[in-house]
Structures are given as C-alpha cells and as structure tokens.
Design brief:
- Helix content is 70%, strand content 14%.
- The protein has two helices and two strands; from the N terminus they run E-E-H-H.
- The protein has helices at residues 25-46, 51-96; strands spanning 5-11, 14-20.
- The protein has a two-stranded antiparallel sheet with strand order 1-2.
- Strand 1 (5-11) and strand 2 form a beta hairpin.
Length: 97
C-alpha cells in the first residue's frame, strides 16, 4: 500500500491541509495554481471582491470546461462511428462483388 503524503494547498488566501497519495500531488498543485490564476483574472476583470462569488465563478468555469470536453468527445466519437460504419458498408459491398 502506498504511503500517504501530507501537503498544504492554498486557495483564495486559505490553507487546506490534505492527506493524499503521492501520485496526486502534481495534479492538485497544478489545479490550485489554475484556480489562483482564475481568481486573479475574475477579480481584475469584474472587480469582484467577495471570495465566495469568485470561487463560484471559478467552479462554474471549470465545470463548463469539463462539460464542453465531454460534448466534444461525444461528437468526435459519433463522427468516428459514422466513418467506421461507412467503411464497413464499403467493404461489405466490395466483398459481395
């Protein structure tokens, strides 16, 4: 069993102590940096000072990105399935000849 790692992540001027698997550390630290950058962007662009509002906007942004990636993946899968179906039909016609 993997040893747990204790780290501290700072988001919106608060420190969050976490106990994680070591392989999660890089992802968590990168995510925290992205959140901090997004917080700064929202505060500068929209003059929002309430941290709860800024964090809600960050959460919405990340959720929207995730949903859009899922939508894009689904569309790509549908295109791939359509191409495979067309190729299969072409092969079937060629083999029947």
């Amino acid at each position: 069993m993997e040893d747990k790692l204790k780290i501290k992540i700072s988001i919106a001027d608060r420190v969050y102590p976490l106990t994680i698997n070591p392989r999660q550390e890089e992802g968590l630290r990168k995510a925290a940096k992205k959140i901090e950058a997004m917080i700064k962007q929202f505060e500068q662009s929209y003059a929002v000072r309430d941290k709860q509002d800024v964090l809600a906007m960050c959460a919405l942004q990340f959720a929207a990105q995730t949903e859009q990636k899922d939508i894009d993946k689904s569309e790509e899968m549908q295109k791939a399935e359509d191409k495979l179906r067309s190729l299969n039909e072409l092969l079937q016609k060629h083999m029947a000849s």
